[in-house]
Amino acid sequence: DGHTCSLFPGHSLLSEPEPGAGGRTVVHITDSPKPPPNRVTLTLPVVNSAGCCVFAAVGQSKADMMKKLLGDDAPADPKDLPARMVRPGSGELYWILDTQAASLL
Q1: How far is CA 30 from CA 6, 9, 17, 33, 75, in A?
Q2: Sign of torsion over alpha carbons 89, 47, 84, 56
Q3: Taking the mean position of all CA atoms in its chain, how far away is CA 12?
Q4: Among 54, 81, 86, 77, which Cα is nearest to 67's?
Q5: Do 92 and 52 touch, CB atoms closer than 8 A?
Q6: Which pTM does this prediction carry?
Q7: Residuewise pLDDT in 10s, the chain (105 residues)
Q8: What phi, psi does 92 have (nearest 5°)?
Q9: Strand locations in the chain, DSSP E?
């Protein structure tokens, strides 16, 4: 579904402001669309302040999503693919994929 941490597509937590602008560092979620419904997660501004972010995906079942996340066609609403919103401001971003997960790229 394109989520990262416990930040799910279309969820209001994707609009959390920077901590310096009154936003939180860690938040709880009680309405996760995937079990368990109650979770704790870093906010997107905090993730994007990391020195290094790493995603890993394996298997053919991930190929379509990897194409959506890493392909040229951006979604009309970025909040539809939260993992695509991970952009470390001054850090590095790595994708570790096996051949099957990368097969549509």
Answers
A1: 11, 15, 19, 9, 26
A2: positive
A3: 14
A4: 81
A5: yes
A6: 0.89
A7: 899 999 999 999 999 999 999 999 999 999 999 999 999 999 999 999 999 999 999 999 999 999 999 999 989 999 999 999 999 999 999 999 999 999 999
A8: -115, 150
A9: 26-29, 39-42, 52-57, 92-97
Rg (CA), the chain: 14
Q: Which two tokens stand for residue 66?
A: 């990897």
By the 8 A CB rule, do 73 and 33 touch? Answer: no
Phi, psi of 43 (to 5 degrees): -85, 160
Of 62, 58, 53, the residue nearest 94 (C-alpha): 53
